[in-house]
Amino acid sequence: MVTWRHRMARLSEPGARRAFGRAWLAICVAGAIITLGLAGGQHFFIVTAIWLVCIFVPVRIAVESLHTFGPRLHDALHRDMQHRPDRYDTREHLTVMVELLYEREVKLPRLSPPGFGGKVIDAAVGLCHRISGRGAGPLGVSRVVTTCSALLDRWVGAIAAGECGTPPSSGSAAAELSFVGGSNGASPPTLWDPTASVQDQWVALRAVAGLGALTKVLIAVYEDSTGQHLEGGTALRTVADAAMDYVDQVGLRLDGPPWETVPGAPLALPQDLVARLAETWMAFCQAPSPAPRRLKTFIEAMPE
Fold it and tell me: What is the domain partition of the chain in residue ranges?
């Protein structure tokens, strides 16, 4: 029941309706071709009219009506789920809760593309589902939060160093992100280049924004599932919010204060892990949705 209601609620989103429309059109075209084949190629007009007028159009109109009905179904599903003791027991329940917590916690920067929140939700669901499947529980969520916030702090530090024209020192966060090489000796694409085009810079900035949003959602999942505040959670939320603000400041060329590391943010991450996580996350954020293989690569790169 929850799965059906959730899928219906998702059709309130324009992107989901367009995807369904394309799939439904392909199904109807295939059905018409099969019907014509069974009829020996006769009655072309009648077969086409039946599949178009009697099958495709009514379903398409019904789906488009979810533009107004879907949000109400969406809100009702969230209200029902948030007080259930089994709200994190299945992937479907987890997805509903992550959507709810995302709406409560996150306000994406202005440079985020339409539908970008869906990528954050997919990543949070994927990470939490893996943690649950391996029995790590809330402790596993807290470890992922620590890793994400450490990566976020280092990545923004690299951007800030580049924007200030400060050459990254050996072993610094900026050096690790901007100049690290791959395990096979090849250099990956620079994760922040202040001389790059605006389009290339926005790829990295959007990834940073998504990482900040992901961190906030995972903190909320931990606190909602345990009923306790995450230790250091306030500082980590502050880092995530500041990072998303800074992304807009850099990407839109706005006036604002320079980036400052927030006290209490975790800083210790191995250099190779920083590079692997940053590259896989940016690849996922850059790919057209839903990009399940790239998401899987990022999730597998995340330490347990």
Answer: 2-69, 86-301
